[in-house]
């Protein structure tokens, strides 16, 4: 433990949001970034508990408690406090293939399980995590590490979302020849088309990691819908094993009066079309334009914007500061 009194001396502090009027001019991330000094102080707040619930990854009464992938959180918090960033990155990569993804979009059940949070604000675990991996990329510490020996086995992975990419990375590191099939025009699944760019940058974050996987020997085949463009029988013939990592992009529609009205879309149609337009660099392409519509102004459509308790996102996501005057109650 780096500083036994850290949680007494330092307050929880997250990076400030970029100004809303600045953000509307781009699709970049919402937040600024902390300095190393501030991050070290945030790491010092970790108490190195005797029983650290932050990384247990268990279900308690049906609720997620702690990190589902068992990140070694107290260890890399301590390393950050001592300024040992590369060692912290090594610790982080022991349990997490893609900390730049989870550090940005995970709802952080680790923070909800932080013992310090019983009577003080929890440690800023999520922000520390993403800062570690970002520094790793900035300093050239994250490099391709292809396996030194191949097994001769071929594995097909269907789907290139978080599960598919993780499976591909692990299987490739084990020495197998991995081919990932994706029905969309770009790999990444919901990471690519289901999350807005200001929460998870596609070119600087998602595609960067996919390029690293390619450099390590993973092959990606896009625009291929298994069962339509490629027969299952051919997969069985050409590969020793198949891993099915399909996502959940099909919406659960609502059979209610007015559903057929013009201008009502499911979320994935909106997110996919607009993200593709952004990535293709074609602002006049076929995307769904919400500018100036009533949906943007919460009070006009209170049912769609107010009932936060019915939304599937965990509370950390719902607590994001609201610069647009859309109120969640």
Please describe what this structure looks like:
This protein is of the alpha/beta class and 329 residues long. The chain folds into 3 domains: 6-138, Orthogonal Bundle (Fumarate Reductase Iron-sulfur Protein, Chain B, domain 2); 154-244, FAD/NAD(P)-binding domain (3-Layer(bba) Sandwich), CATH 3.50.50; 267-318, no CATH class. It is 37% helix and 7% strand. Residues 296-311 have low confidence and may be disordered.
Shape: globular
**What is the terminal separation in angstroms?**
39 Å
The CATH topology of the largest domain turns out to be Fumarate Reductase Iron-sulfur Protein, Chain B, domain 2
**Overall CATH class of the largest domain:** Mainly Alpha
Percent in helix: 25-40%
Approximately how much beta-strand content do the residues carry? 5-15%
Average pLDDT taken over every residue = 87
Q: At CATH's second level, what is the architecture of the largest domain?
A: Orthogonal Bundle
Please give the largest β-sheet: 4 strands, parallel
What are the key terms here?
two-stranded antiparallel ribbon; 37% helix; alpha/beta; 15 helices; globular; 329 residues; FAD/NAD(P)-binding domain; four-stranded parallel β-sheet; Fumarate Reductase Iron-sulfur Protein, Chain B, domain 2
Short description:
By secondary structure, this protein is of the alpha/beta class.
